[in-house]
Amino acid sequence: MKQQTSLPAASSGGPSAAKPVAFSETIGLFMPADGQVASDIGVLFVSPWGLEEMCLRKFWRIVADDLSACGVASLRFDYPGTGDALDRSDFSGGLTIWEDAVVAAAGRLSALSGCSRIVVVGQGLGTAIALRAIHRLDGVAGFVALAPVTSGRAYLREMQIWAKMVEEGLGIAKEHRATEGIVIAGLAMPEEIAVDIRKFSLATLGEKPAPQCLVVKRPDRPGDQEFAAKLAAIGAVVADADYQGYDDLVSNPATAVMPQAVRLAVVEWISNLAAALPVRTAKPWLASAEPAVLCGPDFREEALNFAEGGRLYGVLCEPLGERKGATVLLVGTAYDRAAGWARSGVRLARDLAVQGIPSLRFDTANVADSPPVPGLPDQVLYHEAQSNDVSAALDVVERRHLLPVVATGRCSGAYLAFRSALQDARIEGVVAVNPFVFYWDPTRDIDESLRFIPRTLGDYKGRLLQGETFQRLLQGRIDIARAATNIGRALGRRLARHAMPLVHMLPQNRVMRREVVGAFHTLSDRGVPVALLYSENDVGLDHFAEQFGSSARGLRRYKNVDLTILEGADHNLTPEPARLSYFETLSAIASALDPQA
């Protein structure tokens, strides 16, 4: 299909984040049409599930922003029991529970935007859920299917294979790997949902989902072409496009590459469809609209926009009972959404609320649901501008009279929490999980580091003794040259530990040493408790050992710092015992601080 080469420019002040709304046990993000003239079409995003949803989160936001600039409003949302939605213990209703959420979301989109026509956009499992629910929606003018699911059974088998690859890649110990059900990246699909998904088949599709359809197909998946052919056979007008960059998008949230060609194709197709319908005066979004609030048995959560122009998205979680201790600021990791890897941010926030501890989790600019700041680079990790986002989050906490704050995060989030504590005295405690570094050299290439960070020597040694490593080697699934290079680097870092005083004298390491030592002295002088948690064999331990020695003897001068090594944990703290240790450490530090009067 023909593709346009450019998109409408965002306003000079930069886009605002989508507006959170609460309905049907979940949170939706509504993006109104920009300007005074709007299309009569609204777009409903129906998400995939699991790791694919995490990787797609930012892409959904980018497309929604593009559509807004074209005069098209949209809504995206979480299924009950996923993302920022409420948890459920009863899934006996099966997939109908998620279908009901689609129907409720469509109704909310129409009410907020004033549109009478809807285009449903789904990816992966979202296409199957949309097809089951779409006959219950009014005014469906179009359907966009990206990487569609054509067989529920085949999809679940693929998820199980994908899950094993993720577990191997993360280095999760066998005793902590799931042995039953559909579990990927720590996210477990309810069995009742899986049962209904197994029943889904393209052969059961009898009526066209919409008059106009766009299928974005993966060239190496014949089933995607069959999907397009099936829609045409049952009477839909079908266009198609290639899903260029699918694998680069869904492999890892930290390294996900936005598929620009797909972005252009989807926005153009929807814009052309909208142009054929009447335009109307846009319904203004009322800033005084009721807050997006969800309540659980022990907590009240409010999804909100904050910072200048409402450019950031976050969720404030407060206990329903008596407040105790400091507020926890959950700083996101890499490009994971604020809900966290395996919903760890959501779980942590709600567990803290049971202890009487409030929290705020949020997306920094250009991460997940928060749009970028104009003029800043696309790569925001380890960029000093992220400190502005943390400061804005602290302003929210202060306005709500919830100071002081304990800042926490994992990997790049740990780095940002640690560095922010140096700059803002409102942070009175830090819990840093698997920080890669304590100071980032601005001349260092972040993208290169993210894609090719080698493991520790201990991790390589453990893997060499595993039978599955030899099997992967025989199957050609290991890049021998890169593995050898990374092992050599790990060995070099191990040797450097034993020559630590000499290493610190090297010119390229003097700045690093000065910055790290100065940072720890600053927090020590302020009496800020700092808890460092590392998974055993985490790559961040190499940097730690370079600064403080393999036995952590360099930490002895800092009475405010505690170090904990989490046995059997991966970098993401996927195993439950590691998460519990993290929670207990964080709860103890936050509880020990007096809440603001």
User: What is Rg?
Assistant: 24 Å
Roughly how many Å apart are the termini? 62 Å
Mean pLDDT comes to 88
Report the strand count: 21
Query: What is the molecular shape?
Result: globular
Considering DSSP H and I runs of 4 or more, what fraction of the residues is helical?
Answer: 25-40%
User: From the helix content, strand content and strand pairing, which structural class follows?
Assistant: alpha/beta
Low-confidence stretches: 1-12, 454-475, 482-488, 490-499
User: Going across the major beta sheet, what is the strand order?
Assistant: 13-14-15-17-16-18-19-20-21
Write a structural description.
With 597 residues, the chain is an alpha/beta fold. It contains 19 helices and 21 strands. Helix 10 crosses helix 11. It is globular, with a radius of gyration of 24 Å.
Would you summarize the structure shown here?
This protein has 597 residues and is of the alpha/beta class. The protein is built from 19 helices and 21 strands. It has a 9-stranded mixed β-sheet with strand order 13-14-15-17-16-18-19-20-21, sandwiched between helices. Strands 1-2-5-4-6-7-10-11 form an 8-stranded mixed β-sheet, sandwiched between helices.
Give the SSE layout:
Layout: E1 19-23, E2 26-31, E3 37-39, E4 41-46, H1 51-69, E5 73-77, H2 96-113, E6 117-123, H3 125-133, E7 140-146, H4 152-170, E8 183-184, E9 187-188, H5 191-198, E10 212-217, H6 222-233, E11 237-242, H7 246-250, H8 260-275, E12 279-281, E13 292-295, E14 299-306, E15 312-319, E16 327-331, H9 344-354, E17 359-363, H10 386-399, E18 405-410, H11 412-423, E19 427-433, H12 446-451, H13 457-464, H14 467-474, H15 480-498, H16 500-505, H17 507-526, E20 530-535, H18 540-548, E21 561-566, H19 576-591
Parallel strand pairs: 4-5, 4-6, 6-7, 7-10, 10-11, 16-17, 16-18, 18-19, 19-20, 20-21
Antiparallel strand pairs: 1-2, 2-5, 3-12, 8-9, 13-14, 14-15, 15-17
Helix pairs in contact: 1-8, 2-3, 4-5, 10-11
